[in-house]
Amino acid sequence: MEAKKALVRKNFDGSAEFARTVITNIVYFVSGVLVSKGAMLGNLSPFGASFAAAVPKKYLLSALAGTGLGYILLTPSDSFRYIAVVVAIGGIRWLTSDIKRVKNSALFAPLVAFLPILATGIVLTFVSTSTLSSLTDCIIEAVLAGTAAYFFSSTVRLSTERRSIAAFSQQETASLVLTGCVLMLSFGSVAIEGISVGRILAVLVTLLCARYGGVAGGSVCGIATGAIFSIASRNQGFICGGYAFGGLMAGLFSTVGKFACVIAFMISDAVMCLAFSDRVALAEVLIESFTASVIFMILPKEVGNFIAPVFSHEKNASLGETLRKNVVMRLDFASKAINNVKNDVNGVSDRLKRLYSPTLDMVCDNVRKNVCSGCGLKVYCHDKQEGVTYDDFRRLEERLEQQGRVSENDIEEVFVKKCCKKREIADSMNSNYREYISCLEAQRRVDDVRSVVAGQFSGIGDILSDLSDEFKSAMKCDTEAAERVISVLSAVGIIPMECICLITSGGRMNVELSISPKSKRFSKGQLMREISKCCGRRFDLPLITKEGGSIMAKFCEMPVYDVEIGTEQHIANRGKLCGDCLNYFNDGTGNTYAIVCDGMGTGGRAAVDGNMATSIMTRLLKSGLTPESSLQIVNSALMVKSEDESLSTVDVAKIDLYSGRVTLNKAGAPLTYIKKNGRVIAKEMPSLPAGILNNIKFSTDTVNLTTGDVVVMVSDGVLSGNEKWLENLIRTWNKGSTQELAQAVVAEAIKHRNDGHDDDITVLAVKLTDNE
Q1: Quick check: is 136 in a domain?
Q2: Any idea of the CA torsion for 668, 669, 675, 680, to the nearest 10 degrees?
Q3: Same domain, 548 and 608
Q4: Are 86 and 68 in contact (CB under 8 A)?
Q5: 656 has which bridge partners?
Q6: What is the mean pLDDT of the chain?
Q7: 251, 212 in Cβ contact below 8 A?
Q8: Based on the domain organization, do 570 and 679 belong to the same domain?
Q9: For residue 258, what pLDDT is reported?
Q10: Packing angle of the helix pair 317-356, 422-473 (nearest 10 deg)
Q11: CA angle 484, 478, 311 (to 5 degrees)
Q12: Which residues, if any, are the signal sequence (predicted)?
């Protein structure tokens, strides 16, 4: 039955992949047809060649077919020339497909488009039937072809990256805008009585960018669309000024409302048209602007949620940056200060210990004070025969340490001189020795407590250091997005107490939301959809935690990878409590954590230690602490939880779902097996378990994984004797789920135990998959 399900799942995945490939080829074919129809300076159409030079190799045939068809439909008189150019580009791409250094160059696509257009243009310049009237037009066309190819190649590359548009740099955003303008130019030739569909689209896009992107959005979009459409015809140069000026003015009035944007754009565009054109063109401009304005007015405001993040700028950016640096500086200094406090406490304690620690000599001194000071023979024993008496007491100390107590007979045997107060000395020695032992035990307990407290100082210092590093990696706080989130969530009954939208150095946004418990009930999916709309980014499902009556939700942008996790356990001797404990979760910032802890021994006590270590580690990691800082808290908790010895191994795997990088952290844990590219790697990282000594450290290693790679974490119950069977099992496991893999490992581990001893067995298998 399971095999049948796996076969159905495999067939479904194959069908989905085939459908996705077909749809992508259709998109490239249609895009090739559209860009080929984009004309400039009358009838010159170099953009189809630019597109053919920029598309990925596996979609090249679809793109070539689309651009060829587009050129045939465009101008039959010049279609031969452009088809020849497309064929030449296809040949160049095919000949250089194996030269990675060439094809991966940023100048490859522009040159592949520039050279054929220039060569054929020079030849046809002297042919009377050609639309190329001068060498200047030939050079302009070739330059525009190369430039468009550069923008197309950038856009194609960005389309394969799983990043939100809001995370793109200004150069990347400009490439997308200009690519969109070329596509709009393709509709420029679609006109009814001189009214261009392409120009209507350009005005609509400019109004949207001005309304939701402010002055920056209106100006950038107005300049880009104006520049593209002004070169479409030799007598439409006024469009560049009209759209640029209109976009600027619409952006200035964007805070007033949609209607103000429309009026500002239409007046500005009309003024530029009157200044550089005639009344016929004015009528066309007004009709196009009016049509676009009507569409703009009826569009829902949610459209702006995807535009605003591209052009948004944080309010009071300089103040926010100053505060961020101030927080980083204070956390850094506080971390160092607490670590110095720990060192100072340990230093002072060590000095006091050397000065005031009890010694066995103090026992004899007290006996001499309590017993011998009132004896009439003191002058003889302690003054005249001081050395002999001292040696007598030293021998008595040795017997006291050996036996734990002394009697009158011991004194009779040890002392050289006869003593008249043997009973009093024996009683005093025993009494003071008991006090001495009690002092040593008390000092040991104080040392243990001080050691734990010092470990806590170290842990707090590490926590502050982690927070400092986290703030350092944050580029800025997007207050505008946070305000939109608060407004939208409040409108649907979810009451945000605080909202912070942090943009990291990688351009990704993390959202942390504190929600009032008085809010109406909500689902993770509802929260994710609302936050995605407000921020204009695609977020993953949030991590929601509850602490002290507060609800914290953490969001990260949709990662590149996902994980498939399977777990299985076996309890030793068919017991009810397992000494091993496991857990896994997403931390809300694009990382998946997998934890396996193994308490000492089996049964209830081991279960307490293992579950305690897992629970504390999970809680701290979810709160945002690093595994290294969390380990110090876990270690201290195990040391102070009871007088009995408590320890647990800690095995933590952190999987970065954006890069596929896996960080292994082990404290006394056994091997972890990694299947990468069909090979199995056993990671053995010696270290001490938690609960034995203070200031223990993880043994750490990292591995870069990709789709299909597998991580298998096990407890020591799996490993007994030769573990080659486990490597072979993981290496040959190519079908089935990770849950089935975990079950198979547990079953085989039970079979391979040959020491007659049953033990708890835990297996956690993680497979990296593409995030659909």
Answers
A1: yes
A2: 60
A3: no
A4: yes
A5: 591
A6: 77
A7: no
A8: yes
A9: 85
A10: 170
A11: 85
A12: none
Whole-number pLDDT of residue 382: 67
Residue 435: which domain range? 321-472
Exposed/middle/buried for 541, CB within 10 Å: 0-12, 13-18, 19+? middle
Q: How many domains is the chain built from? A: 4
| pLDDT reported for residue 234 | 60
Residue 664 · residue 702 · CB < 8 Å: yes
Are residues 436 and 549 part of one domain?
no
From the DSSP assignment, how many helices (H) and strands (E) are in the chain? Answer: 25, 17
Same domain, 461 and 483: no
Tens digits of per-residue pLDDT, 619-676? 888 877 888 888 888 887 777 665 566 788 999 999 999 889 999 999 988 899 999 9
Query: In angstroms, rounded to a whole number, what is the distance separating the alpha carbons of residues 5 and 10?
Result: 9
Torsion of CA 376, 377, 379, 385, to 10 degrees: -170
CB atoms within 10 A of CB 621: 21
Residues 265 and 338 in one domain: no
Taking the C-alpha atoms of residue 66 and residue 51, their distance in angstroms, rounded to an integer, is 10
Q: Which of 738, 722, 631 is nearest to 682 (CA)?
A: 722
**The domain spanning residue 719 has which CATH number?**
3.60.40.10
Quick check: is 316 in a domain?
no
Instruction: Determine the 3-state secondary structure of 503 from DSSP.
Output: strand
Give the C-alpha separation, 509 to 542, whole Å. 13
Determine the Cα–Cα distance for residues 167 and 152; give it in Å rounded to an integer: 19
Rounded CA separation 347/336 (Å): 16
Can you tell me the distance from the alpha carbon of 140 to that of 715, in angstroms, rounded to the nearest whole number? Answer: 69
Q: How far apart are CA 590 and CA 583, in angstroms?
A: 17
pLDDT in tens, 309-325: 666 544 444 445 555 55
Geometric angle at alpha carbon 407, from 405 and 409, rounded to 5°: 140
H/E segment holding residue 9: helix 2-36
Question: Is the same domain home to 327 and 303?
Answer: no
Same domain flag for 467 and 541? no
**Residue among 764, 360, 350 nearest 585 (CA):** 764
Residue at 484: amino acid letter: R
Q: What is the reported pTM?
A: 0.56
pLDDT in tens, 670-721: 899 999 988 999 888 888 888 877 778 889 999 999 999 999 999 888 887 6
Q: What is the dihedral of CA 625, 628, 634, 638, to 10 degrees?
A: -170
Which of residues 293, 311, 329 is at a domain's end? Answer: 311
Q: For residues 484 and 464, state if they share a domain.
A: no
In a domain, 168, yes or no: yes
Are 713 and 653 in contact by the 8 Å Cβ rule? The answer is yes
pLDDT by residue (tens digit) across 419-446? 777 777 777 778 887 777 777 776 666 6
* Structural tokens at position 726: 């486990």
pLDDT score at 319: 47
Distances from the Cα of 491 to the Cαs of 45, 542, 678, 691, in angstroms? 50, 20, 52, 50
Q: What is the dihedral of CA 266, 270, 271, 275, to 10 degrees?
A: 160
Q: Please check whether residue 25 lies inside any domain of the structure.
A: yes
Cα-flanking dihedrals φ and ψ of residue 328, to 5°?
A: -60, -45
| 515, 539, 556 - which closes a domain | 556
